[in-house]
Structures are given as structure tokens and as C-alpha cells.
Amino acid sequence: MNQQRDIGFAMQCPVPLPPGEQILLGHGSGGKLTRELIGQLFAPVFADGELARLGDAAVLDLPGGDRLAFTTDAFVVQPAFFPGSNIGELAVNGTVNDLAMMGSRPLALSAALILEEGLEMAALGTVIASMADACRAAEVRLVTGDTKVVERGAADGLYVITSGIGVVPAGVEIGPERARPGDRVLVTGPIGSHGVAVMSRRAGIAFDADLRSDTAPLTELVAAMIGAGDVRVLRDATRGGVASVLNELAEASGVSITVDGAAFPMLPPVKAACEMLGLDPLYVANEGVAVAVVGPQDADAVLAAARAMPVGAASALVGEVGEAGGTTPVRLRTGLGATRPLILLAGDQLPRIC
Amino acid sequence: MKYLDEYRDDRVALSLVERIRQATTRPWTIMEVCGGQTHTLVRQGIDQVLPPEIELVHGPGCPVCVTPVALIDEAVAIAKRPDAIVCSFGDMIRVPGSAEDLFMARAAGGDVRVVYSPLDALEIARRNPDRTVVFFAVGFETTAPANAMAVKQAHRLGIENFALLVAHVLVPPAITAILVSPGNRVQGFLAPGHVCAIQGWREYEPIARDFGVPLVVTGFEPIDLLEGILMLVRQLEEGRTDVENQYVRAVVRDGNLAAQRVVDEVFETADRAWRGIGVIEKSGLKLRPTYAHHDAEVLFPHDGGPPASESEVCIAGQVLRGLAKPHHCPAFGTECTPEHPLGAPMVSTEGACAAYFLAGRVRQETPA
To answer: Which helix (H) or strand (E) holds B123?
Structure first.
């Protein structure tokens, strides 16, 4: 007994740990440090094939042949209120979109709230109303939840954790490992809007511009795209932005990807803010933009279907999938014909954007 | 975006590349002085599409990179004092000192804050009257006017608890130091557009005359850089040694006289150490005696301390003088990365090593 307690106190650990003595902010960035944490700690310890697939949601076979998509996501964005939205809507859309990225329609959500002592009731009310509005817009029910309150200073305002389940229709096969050489890469909207909108309200650098988070449910857009042709991979380009997602799916599929720097749609104020702040928009978070890998014969049809939906009106084909090779699987072509790798950043350009 | 898209037009860029090719008959070695220029060149792959006769070497124009270790150690020491708050631009926080960086000082309980303007630091001083707020004033001539204004403002409003830790450096003495250094290969310079927006280019005329080198004041967008390179190549090919201005939309010969007056009122020139290069005479700024009570080096005198040490493998000094390229360093991309920098040029995005790393360049065994 005593011996066990000692072990507990010394924090000796039965599993091999990723490098580093302490958790850094970068471990939550969606970049290289996050990958280290998942690849070197979580995935080996839980040793589950579906977890190791690292999709936006897990897909589980049910008795009877149906397939269930299942996902969970924690939202800690700071500030909790930002142009165009707040943490509540973000938490609903984020989980709805993780389900959509497996081609599924959301069935039901749960929500857990962690509230800091002293949080204003009116702020909580606004967040909850936004969550309800977002559920209606995404046509999903919120059916169970939990609330915890922690001492002042033990959390920053409020955190929202949502989980969700959805049904994957028969015949739909989407996964991060399914990209093949020759496939085309599509993004479904202007990039960088969410991250820059949040940044514009950060203490110390607040600036005024016509910026709004792009948070939106993507279920209908995804359904339209799947209906139009062979969609092989879908990823929600949240933390780490489009560049990080491209790196993840290139690795999962064992392929290379080349994109055109000039092909990515971007709103002028977002572009201006990125210039001013020295941010690369390819690494800035989105909350209503998906990256899709599409079979080459269907690329134009899927693009047309995406553009016909309001949330996908700015969709564009941005690159193509090639054979694996080289140490940097994702490359960007500059307008001058030179190419440079798009690497996975170690940490984040901005902390806590979702 | 106006004033931006027209300087990034790929067709114009490619036609400039072609004109540079036509103008070039011999090998030329050109230095872009400013880290912002290095960043654009590497990021857009401009160095990959130029004719092979043109070699670009990267200059010392990253103020974060050339700030001496002793000054970073000083900032770390101040940050650890309970009666002080250190404010800095974000890039500076991760630059390694001899034992620690400001991030580590913060993890150890020091109050270190990232600000985007010296006036933000002044505001922090106003709100924390019981502590001394020290702004780490790093930069070339470009940032000196804003820092001078912050000091003047503090003086005027009677905010006595605001101080600068001054690490200001000046470009013309650095160019001269490169030209007189043994082994110098640089034959022409792209002079830094933003610095010249403040200072104009009169100071560069004696350099061109005395050393027989052409300089072109150049902006930061791809078209600016290609046009600057074309102007410089033409001068080199024709044997001219003039100061020319590519950055006409921002720079005039006399510069911004009002900004120069403010700087001159608050600062005076002083000898200054450059990390990786050494002490260069009259190459920095320090606060004038009138403002000594806003000078962190006066308020918190050095305790001596152990001598500053540098990594033994890092070749930052050679990189900063244009004698080596970042990917010739044995530590490049392995021991030394933006997450674990051995030398300052790997820290700031304007540093040549970080620009190479972020552009995915890989280490080369033998220098080209």
C-alpha cells in the first residue's frame, strides 16, 4: 500500500512519455506537438484501431449493419465572445462538423459546462441561447449534459465540451487514409476567418475590421458534395488551419500533396489582418471550412455542388494528390513557379482559438 | 488589396526575372540587408528562379538576432525582480540568453508581457505605479521614433516608473563593418526600405562613394525585390556605384524629418555590440542623459555576472555577416530548430535561419 502511494507521489509513469518535462500551450495547437502527444502517448496506450485512425470522428459498426459516427470536442476559446459568434455556437457546430467529416448526419449531442465562480449569469444565458440556435440550425437535438463550477481562477470564464453521435449512410466511405495519387484537393470556403476574428478581440492587439468567425454547420454541404461524386477524404480545417490538415491526411494516406498558393479563397479583411499581424492564413483556424479530397473524374461535379450551397459558395480546387516521396509531403507552388514545403508547425500562431 | 496585390503580380515578377537574366553577364554577390526582405525572397522562392550568376547573401538586418546575449541576460535578470515588469515584442521572448530566455523567466514567476507597441507598455506602467515597467527597445532606425515618443510621453505625463532597455542598432555602420571585414564578398546591397523611410538615404551616399559599391533602397514585396535586384545588377554591370531608390512609394532622400527630430531629441549614438559580429563603433542608440531616469541600464545596473556564453556549433556570426548560409550549419534543422534555437537567427521569423527552416530548406553538407 505504502509503496503504491510512493509511486503515485513520484509521478512515475508506466508508459513511455513524449519529449518534454511539462505540457506547453503548443501541445494543444493541432501542430507537431499535438501529434507527438497523440502518437507517442494516447494512441499507443489505448491501442485502438479506430482511435489510431485519427479521423475527426470514430466510425463504429452496430449490430444489424448500421454505422455510428461518434466524436467529442472541448472548447476553451479566449475570449468566449468574438465577432460573429461565441463559444456556445462554436461548440455545437464543431461537433456537428466532426460528425459531418465522416459523411454522417448528426443524431444527438451532449454538452458539459465548466463554469468559473463569478461568471455573469447573462453571459451564460447568451451562450446557452446560441447553443440552442445552433442546434436548430444544424437540425440536431441536445439530449444530455452536465455542469461543474470551479473556484474563481481555476478556469477562465467558461469551457464547453460537446460530444455527438450520427449515422453514416450506407455506401458512404470517407476516411483520412483514402486519398490516392491523382485525386484533387478542394477547400469549401474562404480560409482564416475564425482565427483572425478571435485574434481581433485579444487584449493588447484588439483592432477593428469587418471580420466575423465563419462558424457554421457543414452537414448539408457535405451531403451535397457526397451526392455529386466520389469524395474520399473530408477534414474540418480547425486548429492548425488548412496546412496542418493537409499534412495529417498526406501522412494518413501515404501520399504527397501539392497546392497552389494563389488558389485559396480568402476574404480581403482577413488577408489584410494576416498581413498586418504577420500570420500565414494557411495555418489560421477555420470553423466552417472543410478540406476535401475528391476522385479526379468527379472534381468538377463536386466543386459545382459545393458552390451551389451558400456555405460553400467560395469553394475552390486548390491542388492535387501525388505519389509519396521526400521528407515533406505537402508542398506549395508559388506564383513564380518555385515550390516550398508546407511543414507542420510545432505550436500555434495564436493560442486558444477554439 | 491595394498597395499589395500589384506588388505580387506573378506575370510582372516573371518578366522582371527575365529582364534580370538579360542584364546579367557575370557572377554577382548581392546582400539584402533586412530580414523582412530575406523572408520574402525565401518564402516566394525568388532565389530559386534568379539566374545562377546572382548569389543572394543574407544580411544582419534582424534586430532580434543581433541583440547581444548580455542584454538578454539583463532583461531576464530584471524580469525576475518582483518590483519590475518586462514588456517586449513577442519575438524577443524566446531568444536564448546565456542560460535562460524570457519565457523561462516567466515560467519561474517573472512578470513578462508581450506587447505590440511601446505605448502599450507605457499604459501598463500607468496602471502599475508601484512597479517599474521596462520595455525591451529592440530594433533598427524604423522602431526608434515610436520608442522615443513613448519616453517623451512618459516624461511629459510624469510616469516615472517607465524605462527602456535600449538595444537599438543602426544600419549604415553595419554595412560599413561588413565591407571592411576580411573575406567580404558582397558587391552590392539592397538597402532596407523601412529604415530608409525614416532616415532617407543620405547616410548611404558616403558608403557608395568610399567603398565603390552600389546600393538600391528596396521594399519588401516580390516585385519590389526583383526590381531592386534588376537596378542593382544594372549598376554592377555598368560599373556604377550610386545610391538608387526602388521604394519610391515610401522613401524620399531626406526621410521623415519629424521622426528624425524626435529620435535625436531622446537618443544619442553609441558604440554597440552585435551578437555574432562584435562591437561596432557608433552603431547603436542610447538614451540621452536628460532621460537617464527612464534608462533600465541606469535603474538596474549590471551585477557583472558570469560572462555570456554562446553555443559552440552555431555559426550565426558567419550567417549574419553573409559569410555562410543557414543550411551550411552543422546544427541546422537538427540540434537547432525554431522550437529549440541555438542562435538568435533561428528564433525570429525575420532571422535567416528561421526563414530557411520554415521554407523547408534542408541542411547541406558542404558549403556551396
So the answer is: helix B118-127
